[in-house]
Amino acid sequence: MGFFDKLKAGLAKTKKAFVAGIDAIFGSYRDVGEELFEELEELLVCSDIGAETAMEVLDTLRDKIHDERITNPEDAKNALFEILRDMIGDGEEIVYEKGRMTVILVIGVNGVGKTTSIAKMAYDIKRKGKKVLLAAADTFRAAAIDQLSVWADRAGVELIAQNEGSDPAAVVYDAAAAAKKRGTDVLIIDTAGRLHNKKNLMNELEKIDRVVSRELPDAIRETLLVLDATTGQNAVIQAKEFKNAADITGLVLTKLDGTAKGGIVISIKKELGIPVKFIGVGEKIDDLQAFNADEFVGALFEK
Ligand SMILES: Nc1nc2c(ncn2[C@@H]2O[C@H](COP(=O)(O)OP(=O)(O)O)[C@@H](O)[C@H]2O)c(=O)[nH]1
Ligand SMILES: [Mg+2]
């Protein structure tokens, strides 16, 4: 399956729940009046863009309909899609520079898809001819280290790990040293998501951050927060917590293929002020895509 088809297939459930609902509403009225707006309000407020964003979208749509003197529902629907498109913002890419290492720290709660996303990223970056090294800084469970190791093999990249229970910052220290020695282009750090409280999480991430800053002072830094799209607005709440603990530079939104809640992509940048950089559309190694707003909108809204 090609890239765009995979995206389309991944968004099929969201399309069915969200876009089909919009289509049905605009298709069932002859003019753009209060009744249509009431139905639309109900759909948007109950969708995963969140109530606040939904109201803002509706206000903007009313203004646009007024300013552009839109009278037929088909034009109004296209105006709505334009508003949603603008809200998504543009995707931002990870920065790579020749001769300069990029360090990607990957954070997020347990089970959201950190390890799998790291493997997918590593696979893609390696295919582009760059040298990738993984650091297994989720040291809570031996299984987590094993899992990353299996994925590293699949992606064909090297891994730095220590034993279960070792200090994550020590793993990162080892990885930084190895990366320098081996001429690594991209170092990706897997972290644990099961830290008991916010203070703990903050300390852990700060410690890792200090090690990277000290050992790799010239590196380009990225901190990606992984969010599980199937959790809808809860993902937004999680992100707000993590924002207090780290300088997040981008989001990875996983499991879009398994959910009708893909509408979250529309509001997430507005709500958090952080761009979505990758989306996960399946469990296989090539099922992570750099986020591109136009492609996303195309896959979601086009027939
Ligand atoms: N369907 C689907 N499953 C995913 C995706 N990303 C991750 N998963 C699954 O989510 C589960 C947890 O992933 P894992 O990487 O171990 O999460 P971690 O605890 O954050 O490291 C695994 O079963 C993955 O296969 C995705 O984009 N789509
Ligand atoms: Mg993991």
Search tags:
alpha/beta, Four Helix Bundle (Hemerythrin (Met), subunit A), 8 strands, elongated, binds guanosine-5'-diphosphate, binds magnesium ion
Topology:
Blueprint: H1 3-10, H2 12-27, H3 34-46, H4 51-67, H5 73-88, E1 102-107, H6 114-127, E2 132-137, H7 142-155, E3 158-160, H8 168-182, E4 186-191, H9 198-215, E5 220-228, H10 233-245, E6 250-254, H11 264-272, E7 276-280, E8 288-290, H12 293-301
Parallel strand pairs: 1-4, 1-5, 2-3, 2-4, 5-6, 6-7
Antiparallel strand pairs: 7-8
The structure holds guanosine-5'-diphosphate and magnesium ion.
Magnesium ion is lined by residues 114-115, 138, 144, 190.
Tell me about this structure.
It is a single chain. 43% of the residues are buried. The mean pLDDT is 92. The chain has 303 residues and is α/β, with parallel strands linked by helices. Helix 5 (73-88) packs across helix 11 (264-272) and helix 6 (114-127) packs parallel to helix 7 (142-155). It has helices spanning 3-10, 12-27, 34-46, 51-67, 73-88, 114-127, 142-155, 168-182, 198-215, 233-245, 264-272, 293-301, and strands at residues 102-107, 132-137, 158-160, 186-191, 220-228, 250-254, 276-280, 288-290. The chain has 2 domains: 3-88, Four Helix Bundle (Hemerythrin (Met), subunit A) (Up-down Bundle); 102-301, P-loop containing nucleotide triphosphate hydrolases (Rossmann fold, 3-Layer(aba) Sandwich), CATH 3.40.50.300. The protein starts with a helix and ends with a helix. Bound molecules: guanosine-5'-diphosphate (GDP) and magnesium ion. Residues 108, 110-116, 193, 226, 254-255, 257-258, 280-283, 287 line the site of guanosine-5'-diphosphate.
